[in-house]
Amino acid sequence: MWLKDKRVTVKLVQRRGGLEGWGLSRVVSSHRWCRSDTSLFKGIVVVWLQAAAGGTLAMRRDGEGGTMSVILDLPYLYSIIISSVVAIVYTLMGGLYSVAYTDVIQLILIFFSLWLCVPFLMTNPHSLDISLTAYNQTFQAPWVGTVELDQAGKWFDDFMLLALGGLAYQAFYQRILSASSYTQAQVTCFASSGFCLVLGIPSILVGAVAASTDWNSTAYGLPTPYERNQAGSILPIALQYLTPPYISIIGIGAVAAAVMSSMDSALLSSASLFSSNIYKNILRKQASDSEMQWVIRISVVVVGLAGTGLTFLDSSVLVFWLVGVDMSYTIMFPQLVCVLFFKVSNAYGALIGFMMGIILRFMSGEPLIGLPPLIEFPGYRLDAEGKQTQYFPFRTAIMMLSLFSILLFSWLAAIIINKGLLPEKWDVFKINRKRKPSAGAAEAEKAKQAKEGVSEAKQLLDNTTSF
């Protein structure tokens, strides 16, 4: 594994705060079928990572724009544009240091500010006891829903999506590969899972209080935020109208600062993905440090503008987050599993599995972005809101089909090429395993890769911290 073979690089990354956008691509690219002789497939993988990062950026920018719209009472369009300009400018000015320091500040602000606001939200005079409104119709529908047996497939699909979709996020490996030992990496994962539960409690309480509020008695008035299609901005709305002014300022300001911190992280992540893995490794292998700095600057601006454009598709942060983790689960997760656990996998199978996953996913439709389905799985019908919905666990089915496709076509490709059924010149990904290197050659190749990894880490660190 890369963490074991290239510990020098890992420690270098750790000392400088980690490399945004570098973690998962290094795990993938260090695999036997994703090295320099397979740059085409490597580029395809990284392009998809870039797209996933763009979706995450849109999600964070949507959250920042929605918060500003509530605070300043500006039109949503202006709020998005202002937040985008600010994020792009200070990311260009701060580089990697702006990410390393703001991540710590973000965690502190979001933790203390939300828990500070919870008592004031729970005791505000406009809301009923949330235990009474959990299952009873009051000002609005009960905030605790129900799970019907005929929806079991959809719930199972959502569960698997949330449980496994995040495992293919580059941000996860960015942190794990920065750990100094296996133990530290494991402890970080376990501690983070528990901490997520603690951070999730205030969000649940905010939603419960909002669903238990008589909005007609507040300055917000009727209709309710849900009826105005502003449910995605319920946190800043609840803080502004249901807490004292000084608490509202603290809470909304902390949320805005935390979201802005995530935006610069996503910007630099996407920029470094493109500059290091596509431009440097594929397009311009001899690019100088100065040229790479300008590539990163331009990438930050381009990705920032792309993320800004995506936010106009929908005003909900949850929509962009779900779409991003959906793509990660159905397309990237099978690739990651095969890279790490199946030696039979190779670039041919991975390429076919990638194409099959993305085609099937888009043909299945996505109501969150208005994409109609071309494939109607069993159980396809109208939901309670009158929308056509796939109740079959189609995401998990697509993920499994993609996984099996990678393994099947990798095995077939290995047999065809290793038995000489095709000319060797047709083996564009160089998977011929007949010519196994000697032990000395293997060690030399291993040392060469480790040296290249250290050099690449140093160059990318210098570029992202100096521009």
Shape: globular
CATH class: Mainly Alpha
Number of strands: 2
Averaging pLDDT over every residue, what do you get?
75
Query: Which value, in Å, is the CA radius of gyration?
Result: 24 Å
CATH homologous superfamily placement:
Sodium/glucose cotransporter
**Helix count?**
16
Q: List the uncertain runs.
A: 1-23, 28-65
The percent range for strand residues is under 5%
Largest sheet: 2 strands, antiparallel
Taken together, the total number of domains comes to 1
CATH-derived topology: Sodium/glucose cotransporter
Strand order of the largest sheet: 1-2
Order of helices and strands: HHHHHHHHHHHHHHEEHH
Biased composition (Basic and acidic residues): 443-455
Main location: membrane
Keywords: Glycoprotein, Ion transport, Membrane, Neurotransmitter biosynthesis, Sodium, Sodium transport, Symport, Transmembrane, Transmembrane helix, Transport
GO molecular function: choline:sodium symporter activity
Overview of the structural elements:
Keywords: Glycoprotein, Ion transport, Membrane, Neurotransmitter biosynthesis, Sodium, Sodium transport, Symport, Transmembrane, Transmembrane helix, Transport. It is a multi-pass membrane protein. The structure is a single chain. This protein is mostly helical. The protein has a single domain (2-466), classed as Sodium/glucose cotransporter (Up-down Bundle), CATH 1.20.1730.10. The protein has helices at 2-5, 7-15, 23-29, 39-72, 76-122, 130-133, 152-164, 170-176, 182-211, 234-242, 245-283, 289-311, 317-341, 347-363, 394-418, 439-466, and strands spanning 381-382, 388-389. It has a two-stranded antiparallel sheet. Helix 4 crosses helix 5 (76-122) and helix 14 (347-363) runs antiparallel to helix 15 (394-418).
